[in-house]
Amino acid sequence: MSIETTDAVILKQTPFGETSRIITLLSRDFGLLRGVAKGVRQQSSRLARFLEPLTEVELVLYYYTDRDLHLISKASELNPFHQLRSNPLRLAHSLVIVEHVLRLLPPEDPSPQIYELLVESLRLLDEGAVNERFVLLAFRVKLLHLLGIAPRLEGCITCGKKLTSRVNIFFPSQGGFICEECPPPWREGRMTERGGERALRVRREVVALLNQLSKGDIVSFGGKTPGGGLLSEAGRLLGFHTNYHLGVNIRSERFLEEAREVYGEK
Ligand SMILES: [Zn+2]
Known about the structure:
Elements (H helix, E strand, L loop, with lengths): L1 E15 L3 E8 L3 E7 L18 E8 L5 E11 L2 H5 L1 H17 L7 H16 L4 H15 L5 E5 L10 E5 L4 E3 L13 E3 L2 E7 H12 L12 H19 L5 H12 L3
Parallel strand pairs: 3-5, 6-8
Antiparallel strand pairs: 1-2, 1-4, 2-3, 4-5, 7-8, 7-10, 9-10
């Protein structure tokens, strides 16, 4: 056992025993991990208020190398992201981000870059200056890149040529696009299924947007947010790709759709 200090974002908490909770968090130095916070369900707990989901804190941990459950000893607040939690639409978008982290990251495999991406995305949602759908899309593209499972967007995966057609066909099983000149597994007008193979029609603008996002920082796009149609199409491609390669469907997306219907879109 060692005593460690690390920055962390609280992702989830579940009751544990009579008075405690298990806290799931993304830490800068240890990656995704779970820690017990003792006595935090008692009113007298001073630790409890720092362990609310979507708070960035500095933690002191009793870290056990031979276990997957550690002990949270102290916490101090770095960023409470108050605005984000008081706005239903921004909150719904941050929950989708949190679910991506919870379900796509391997446990205790630290990535300071993924940590920074999470904090930056929550900060942007908290400030509200950049469209929340755009923040979420950028987060998803960048996360897939950092995890090494991003779709290939640079050109045709067979011949390498630039994608010049107005509409291009994305094959999740291939992890990329196949141009019109190359023999496809098959070609189809719409997202559909044939012999188990699925494909997705994607406009050229969507490919360009995803390419840009994978390279640039989120803020530099802030003033010129693309239209909702482009964002939806790009999101669908990423969802398809993630589902095919990791078998993961992000459940909070449905909650997000409902939140959009109720609270409207800017
Ligand atoms: Zn080709």
